[in-house]
Amino acid sequence: MHHPDRPLTGPAGVLERLGLGAIALADCLWLYLRILGGRARLDLPAFAAALRQSGLSVLPALTLVSVVLGLILGRQGEQLLAGFALPDALLISLTYAIALELLPVLIGILVAGRAGVALAVRQAGLAVSGELDGLLVNGIDPIRYTLAPTLLAMLLMSAAFAVWSLLVTGLTTWAWLWASVALGPARLVETLAHAIGPADLVGALVKPPLFALLVAPLACVNGIAAGRDPRGIARAATATMLGAIGLILVADLLYLLLIG
Amino acid sequence: MSTPSPAPTPPPALAIAGLYQHVAGRCALSDLDLTLPAGEWLLICGPNGAGKSLLSRLVLGLDHPSAGTIALFGQDLARLDGGAMRRLRRRLGAVLQGGSLLADRSVLENLLLPLRETPLRRAELARAARLVVTLLQLDGLEHHLPRALSLGQRRRVELARALIHQPDLLVWDGVADGLDPSALGEILEMLDTVRRNRALTLIATDNSPAALITHCEHALVLDHGRAVYAGPSAALRETAAARIELRAALRGWR
């Protein structure tokens, strides 16, 4: 266990952070396997709280973002159709491809911004309040108390949000185009079926949970590294937000380059 | 016919050797040696900043010493991995200075924390909780959050949590914090009763030896991180009369 009074700075600190993150993630995945095998129990109150943080509290903002994105794409599509006389099939394909690429990143950032930062603050707050000591002296692995339920909630909600956002954005874009250029639903479905392959959809659905898998350990490590100084809580929150955005963008790029 | 070999001597509950601890560039504990047999009680006292809480945290494995070794029940803390440390901690109970209750969990959930990883059934958990709730006079507070309790009540909850799994060693840092003398006396009597039924080792810290001196067999007096007395508690008063530095550390206790 990292000593709360020793800062994780410098090259050794970066290595220690990476190691802590990897151990925390492995510990969580092992716990999930034990839960599936009936040999361990999930902390249900913590899981319910994490679902609220990464789910219900994010849903209004995410729905708004999806609707706005759909309206922007619809409006731009209408202008492109009017200006360049593009075939509507090509336009819809381009629009949906943008949505497939952009939405997972936005979901990742929104979920990371809420659940990731909340996790970092909770983890850092445990050390400041003495609760971390309470867990340790009672033989409870703090990672299992904080990260395990939060990561599971983030994974579930990210996947659900991916489906929800694609539906909301797609329907909003189509609604705009239907109203402006009379694009019918049959034409839309036919166009999408030709333009979007299963791999594209899988990518859009897999990426948000993948981002959650990266952001949750980052948040946990930032929380641990905050130490017992109350100012460390704010540092952990800021570092998690900024780190999560960078991590998500780099992961998205790597996904694009390596998997397509 | 071979003669039966003598039963092996059980390891001491606590064995400290050559302990040093540096905090923020200063020596907060220096050259401590201590052995506490299982089932016996140790009082650690001294003025504020003497190193009592620091020593408690080191004994519980919450901090790592700068030098020296600490062994609990024969197990060197520095050699234990995470899993072994968690298993050892299930033999320990701890009441920490400043509080360590989980803020977002009720009193009952906090009480059951040490039993989380055990295969006990719901009825057994309820029975264990009922017992410590009654012993520590926490009836009616089971579903309150810690923030709704007074300091004294929170200390009782911490003590109940530390006892619920029947630990072999109880570390109680800041014995008198939040408890009036009569309440503390009742709790110490209750712990004495527990000790008569099974070997409970106690390490308790306080500024003054007044409340605990008659209950503990051993005393360790710290001042600025150094042991100015380590020996039987029965001899503490007599030694203090003869040694000025000990009297200074005990701040007028007679």
TrEMBL record, chain A:
Pfam families on file: MlaE
Transmembrane segment boundaries: 14-33, 54-74, 94-113, 151-177, 210-227, 239-259
Keyword Membrane: yes
Translocase keyword on record: no
Top-rank taxon: Bacteria
Keywords: Membrane, Transmembrane, Transmembrane helix
Molecular function per GO: phospholipid transporter activity
InterPro entries named among the record's database cross-references: Permease_MalE
An example Gene Ontology CC term for this record: ATP-binding cassette (ABC) transporter complex
Protein name: Phospholipid/cholesterol/gamma-HCH transport system permease protein
Organism: Marichromatium gracile (Chromatium gracile)
Automatic annotation (TrEMBL), chain B:
UniProt entry tagged with the keyword Chaperone: no
Record domain ABC transporter: where: 14-249
ATP-binding listed as a keyword: yes
InterPro entries: AAA+_ATPase, ABC_transporter-like_ATP-bd, ABC_transporter-like_CS, ABC_transpr_LolD-like, P-loop_NTPase
Gene Ontology molecular functions: ATP binding; ATP hydrolysis activity; transmembrane transporter activity
Source organism, top-level taxon: Bacteria
GO cellular-component term (any): plasma membrane
Any Pfam family: ABC_tran
Keywords recorded for this protein, A-Z: ATP-binding, Nucleotide-binding
SUPFAM superfamilies: P-loop containing nucleoside triphosphate hydrolases
PANTHER family with a match to the protein in the record: FE(3+) IONS IMPORT ATP-BINDING PROTEIN FBPC (PTHR24220:SF612), IMPORT ATP-BINDING PROTEIN (PTHR24220)
Protein name: Phospholipid/cholesterol/gamma-HCH transport system ATP-binding protein/D-methionine transport system ATP-binding protein
Native organism: Marichromatium gracile
